[in-house]
Design brief:
By secondary structure, this protein is mainly alpha-helical. It is built from two helices and two strands. The protein has one domain.
Length: 106
């Protein structure tokens, strides 16, 4: 597979993970926690802890940092590809002119 395609897939996955943690973070920050930092959801029987909000926030920051790093590598690979393409075009254009010149001489 192409490196650029793999990087773009990884970027999309990283963005989706960041969105997932953001949704969880926003939902959990609005819960009415008691003085011990717990919220009991009677319908599902689950206890949510206030300390988990910090962890979800850190996961959001981590996902954002990974996305920035992946964007950097994607841009670097894309620029190298364009530079290589420009070098090849320049090489071919220079040799094309040389071949025309040699053909006219002969």
């Amino acid at each position: 597979m192409n490196k650029l395609l793999i990087l773009r897939i990884m970027i999309v996955i990283c963005i989706l993970i960041g969105i997932l943690f953001t949704i969880i973070f926003v939902n959990r920050i609005g819960l009415p926690y008691n003085t011990e930092g717990r919220f009991f959801d009677a319908s599902s029987g689950v206890v949510y802890h206030k300390q988990a909000i910090l962890v979800y926030g850190l996961f959001i920051v981590l996902a954002l940092a990974i996305c920035v790093i992946l964007f950097y590598f994607e841009k670097k690979i894309r620029n190298n590809k364009e530079k290589l393409r420009n070098d090849v075009h320049l090489f071919l254009n220079n040799h094309w002119i040389l071949l025309i010149f040699i053909n006219e001489i002969l």
